[in-house]
Structure formats: C-alpha cells, structure tokens
Amino acid sequence: MSEAMSVQRKKIHPYKFNLWLGLAGIIMMFAGLTSAYIVKRSQPGWESFKLPGIFLYSTIVILISSVTVQIAVRAFREREMPRYRLFFAITGILGVVFMIMQVVGFYTFQSLGMKMIGMGSNAAYSFVLAIAGLHIVHVLGGVIALIIIFFKAFSSKKRNYDIIPVEIVATYWHFVDILWVYLFIFFSLLH
C-alpha cells in the first residue's frame, strides 16, 4: 500500500504537466522571435536603441510581484486565508502596474521619434513592440488567472484547500517574470 502511495506522489499532476507543456511552447515562441531579432539586426537600416528607463522600473515591479505571489502560496499552505488573499491581490495589482509601465515605455519610444508601426517605422522598434507586446499578453493572462483564483478564495459555498490551482498560477507567474527578465537583458545587451 505504501509503495503505491509513493509511486502516486512521484507522478506529476496532469494540470501541472499541461502547464509545463504550454510553457515549453511559449519558450520556443520567444526563442524564435529573439533569434529572428538577432538575424534581422545585421540588415541595412537597422537602428540601435537604448530601452527607456521605465522598462528597468517595470522589471523591478515584476520581480517584486514574484516575491508577493510566493508569499501568497506560503500563506495558502498555512491556511492563512486573509494573508493569502492580500498577497494574491498585491501580485495582481503589480501585474497591472507592470503592463501600464510597459505601455508607457512604448509611448516613450514614440515620443523619442522611434516609430514602431506604420510608414517610416524601423524593424528594430517593431520587433521590440512585437516581442514585448506578446509578453504583455501573457502577463494579462496571468493577471486574469490571479483574479479568478483570488475570487475563488472568497467562495462561501465550499472551502477548498486544493493547492494545485494556486501552485499552477504561481508557477506561470514566475515564468512570465523570468521571461521578462530575459527579454530585458536581451534588449539591453543588443541595443
């Protein structure tokens, strides 16, 4: 009996397995985009640029959100629901702040005369918009997942202390955080 339980504990939960498959696909997509960026930058007309400072600040915000989501997971495990709700809410708010800062960063590019789309745009800026824009879409997905899990914590119909959904959302959140740090370093080093 204990042998069967030991084998069961070693298996990965199907939802977590699906998450890892999805993350592998996202990694491949961003690896392809950053590889294309490297190849395209050797073409004539490619303009070099420096990321506006707001992108550094948004990086700090998303790193802080990784800490808050981990505090929320720990609070959930300890069944400290008020603390769990608070830190999940803080994580979601930080995610929204991150997205707003990214959009402000794009407008900063525009205000510096770096046209990202349309006539007169440069491929370098268009790549930044496409890659960072796709990342924002993934952060938005994470914020939506955070909101759903957050409101489930207020459900009075049933008290469910299943950690799997919380861990899945936290893992995804850490992933988008790490992905942005990679993209930030990538763009900073290749300007």
Structural features, described:
By secondary structure, the protein is mainly α. The chain has a single domain (about 55-190), classed as Up-down Bundle (Four Helix Bundle (Hemerythrin (Met), subunit A)), CATH 1.20.120. The protein is about 75% helix and about 0% strand. The protein is elongated and about 60 Å long. The N and C termini lie far apart (about 60 Å). The model has no long low-confidence stretch (mean pLDDT about 85).
Kindly estimate the percentage of residues that lie in beta strands according to DSSP.
under 5%
Q: Tell me which oligomeric state these chains represent.
A: single chain
For the termini, the CA-CA separation is 59 Å
CATH architecture: Up-down Bundle
Name of the CATH class: Mainly Alpha
CATH superfamily: Cytochrome c oxidase, subunit III, four-helix bundle
- Helix percent reads over 70%
Order of SSEs:
HHHHHH
CATH topology: Four Helix Bundle (Hemerythrin (Met), subunit A)
**Helix and strand composition category:** mainly alpha
Q: Specify the biggest β-sheet.
A: none
Q: Quick one: overall form?
A: elongated
What keyword list fits this structure?
mainly alpha, 191 residues, Four Helix Bundle (Hemerythrin (Met), subunit A)
What is the structure about, briefly put?
By secondary structure, this protein is mainly alpha-helical. Helices cover 77% and strands 0% of the residues.
Task: Break the fold down into its secondary structure elements and pairings.
Layout: H1 2-10, H2 14-40, H3 54-77, H4 81-111, H5 123-152, H6 163-189
Helix pairs in contact: 2-5, 2-6, 3-4, 3-6, 4-5, 5-6
